[in-house]
Task: inverse folding
């Protein structure tokens, strides 16, 4: 079964987004279910809107993973982390990408095309994409931190009514 994923970019990251999208589909057996930026011009001044949209796509369980590519990946991740249940990290190296997923069950990574070249970016994507969080083998501290993150989100953010899954705070067999 293909892993469903969202991908978006600004105008700076458009060419890299296209290359990573192709890599995901052809090499990683992924199905891109959200890709709203079809031209460089559509990427201008859009990160806040796309962050809001991508958060919704993940909250509604249309997919559980997302990638955003711009100059650094920072602005988008700042915005998307304002949404209940979302854990996004701007990453610049494979180890941080791997740990974002294995320690924090991060659903979204922000990538910077001004930070790394295409081949290194593929290594970062591999480290994040290929290392799914597994509640059966995850460190106890990581699982406790996810539950604490959920408590924090519940206290500080509004949970949308259309959230369709537990957002990776708990194993899939536990209800929301």
Result:
């Amino acid at each position: 079964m293909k892993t469903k994923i969202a991908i978006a970019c600004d105008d700076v990251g458009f060419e890299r987004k296209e290359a990573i999208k192709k890599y995901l589909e052809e090499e990683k057996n992924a199905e891109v279910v959200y890709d709203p930026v079809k031209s460089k011009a559509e990427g201008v001044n859009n990160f806040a809107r796309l962050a809001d949209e991508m958060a919704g796509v993940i909250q509604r369980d249309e997919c559980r993973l997302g990638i955003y590519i711009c100059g650094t990946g920072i602005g988008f991740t700042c915005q998307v982390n304002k949404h209940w249940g979302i854990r996004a990290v701007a990453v610049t190296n494979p180890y941080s990408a791997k740990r974002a997923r294995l320690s924090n069950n991060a659903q979204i990574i922000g990538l910077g095309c001004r930070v790394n070249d295409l081949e290194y970016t593929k290594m970062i994507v591999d480290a994040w994409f290929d290392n799914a969080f597994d509640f059966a083998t995850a460190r106890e501290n990581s699982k406790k931190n996810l539950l604490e993150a959920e408590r924090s989100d519940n206290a500080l953010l509004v949970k949308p009514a259309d959230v369709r899954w537990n957002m990776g705070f708990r194993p899939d067999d536990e209800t929301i």
Notes: The chain has six helices and five strands. The longest strand covers residues 3-9. The helical segments are 14-27, 47-59, 74-80, 94-104, 118-129, 140-156. Residues 140-156 form the longest helix (17 residues).
